[in-house]
Amino acid sequence: MLVVAEFVAKTGWGLFAGMPGEVAQLQAGVTRWVSGHQQPTKRQGSGQSSAPSGQSESTVKVEQVSHKQTKQSTNTPIEPIVVGQQLKRIYKYHFAKDVPAKERHAFIHAVHVYNRTGIVHLKAGRAAQSENQITFGAYHKKVARNQTSVELGRGGPQITETVSFRGMTIRNKATASLNITYALAFKDSVAIHELGHALGLDHSMARSSVMYPLDQGKMHLSPADVRGLRQVYQQTKS
User: Fold this and answer.
1) What is the 8-class DSSP label of residue 78?
2) Pick from 174, 136, 140, 169: nearest CA to 157
3) Which residues, in sequence order, are CB contacts of 56 under 8 Å at separation 6+?
4) Cα dist. 217→5, 88, 162, 195 in Å?
């Protein structure tokens, strides 16, 4: 029971909109921001929500997700912005300030879940400029009384490609956050879902998947989730 809006902002070669600090680094190379997650849109979903208390799951309205899944699909879908990107499998993660202990516990458990796949390796620490990074955060968002779902979290990748005389470096500066307005957000299953988005997994319409838009309390990746994750990182090197 978890549906959330996805935040996508795109910039390309040229004016470097919204990132004046990058212009000063042109002497070292050129950075193309492929995509990021900034403001929610009405169109896409990249997180989870919960039905209000007393409301059955069957009455929850699930927003249309950006990646349609067919019955023939064997992998959990991946975020469009990571398609074709050769992402390194190693990540450094850290927590933003004022993240509650309950949330830290949930995301640390989620890190162990993904590390056990052997596909990615997440470790605590601050990332260097060329390394993949995940920032775990917290926010408050209270939904209106007439809403049929409660937003519990947000997450997603932000890919940059930096070109210099040393070659091209591809980096994922991802985020995953929980809506700490609601106690339901502190569930391990919510953290696993949002971390999945940060690593490049999109929503899945398979109820066995941790990436299903409504929280079902899933604590383990399904075989399709593992295949989707492998699809993102199979052609990369550490």
Assistant:
1) B
2) 174
3) none
4) 20, 29, 38, 15
